Amino acid sequence: MGVINGTVLQVVAKTFAKEFSKTFNETESFYDKLATVVNAKTPTVDYTWIGQMPKMREWVGERVVKDLKAYKYTITKKRFEATIEMDRDYIIYDNLGAMKPQIQELAQSAKHHYDELIVELITQNGACYDGKKFFSDQHKVGSATYSNISTQKLSQSAFLAARAAMRKIAGDQGKTLKIRPNLLAVSTNLEEEALRILRADTIDGTTNITKGMAELLVIDDLPDNAWMLLDTSKAIKPFILQVNRKPKLVAMDSDKDYSAFMKASYLYGVDAEHNAGYGLWQLAYFSDGSAVEVANELESILSEVLSNPKLITEELIQKAIADAEEIVGAKELEIPFFLDIALYRFFVRVRAKAPQSVKDAYEKAIARLQKAPIKKSTLAKVAQRQSIWI
User: Fold this and answer.
1) Which residues pair with 229 in a beta bridge?
2) Cβ distance 171 to 177 under 8 Å?
């Protein structure tokens, strides 16, 4: 039977702290692949400078200093903790080994919390330094507007389209930012498709031109059909992890403490101060993969319509177009993709069966659809229209 005194408790605390530190350092994580780590000295840090991406120019006359007054972006630290309780019998009966897994769990939880903060930024899609949502189709740079968001299903063509869109992004001087997408991050559902795109020798019997174009990162907590393409090679990364106080194991193990007096137990916990925020939107491209779901739903509805030729009327064409404009509107579906997957097939079939008046309505409807406004829509809206369509 062991004896409990101050010296023994100090040894226990040091042993636990050493195990915590070892496990923390050995725990795998991905936050540092996506985020610039900033060791902060103040509770709130101003990251207004994020918006300044200077390019070299010929020095003629005075230097040109970029005005950052339009930007304001700060990150303020938050406190985080996790605590476990240990009965003093673990010391008295020399059974500290049984506590080791709990200390290791504390360390792993602390390390993974960094990852969790980055995933929250991705899924919440809050505002970044330019005041727009981080993933948005409304990012303005000079007179140009850029998009780093899509709803396309992960495929080789979607991967290449995202890559091309990122590489075309220019600064306010009109020169490209030399973005080089090098990391494809996907949900667990998309791991197989991502492996095919990045590692297969052939795709559909032809040489795989995207083999080795990017590294692969599988993030368990991403939504099922979500994927991202990122450039993590820059000094500034897509996200920021601000660390004010690194996770540290602390003990409440004095016999005078409340827990020891009332419950014959000691408390060990980890506390840390940090937070995360958005870096450069130019370096990340996100798709939730929802377009294919909407298109498949529409295709199902349209198939039912086509099963009854009597329903193919000019009125149906006009209602279909009105619905299409509403659906296309959100950029949840890009117009060409939408036409190809659902409406275009519908109209092709209708044209083959319908009288000339309906064919004429079809031609006018296609012209309208191609000029459809961009506005928000969801699969729910499609479902609401189902009774009209069929």
Assistant:
1) 184, 285
2) yes
pTM of the model: 0.71
First CA to last CA distance, the chain: 80
What pLDDT digit, counting tens, does each position of 62-92 carry? 444 444 444 568 899 999 988 877 776 666 6
Architecture of domain 6-57+64-126+239-279: 2-Layer Sandwich (3.30)
Instruction: Report the alpha-carbon angle 106-112-115, nearest 5.
Output: 160
The CA distance from 115 to 26, in Å, is: 15
Strands 78-87 and 265-278: antiparallel
Residue 364: its pLDDT value, please? 62
CA–CA gap between residue 39 and residue 245 (Å, rounded): 8
Separation in Å, CA 3 to CA 85, 94, 251, 327: 19, 9, 19, 73
| pLDDT recorded at residue 292 | 57
Point out which residues pair with 30 in neighbouring strands. none
The CATH architecture one would assign to domain 139-236+282-287 is 2-Layer Sandwich (3.30)
User: Do residues 351 and 282 touch, judged by C-beta distance below 8 A?
Assistant: no
* Average pLDDT, integer, range 231-255: 88
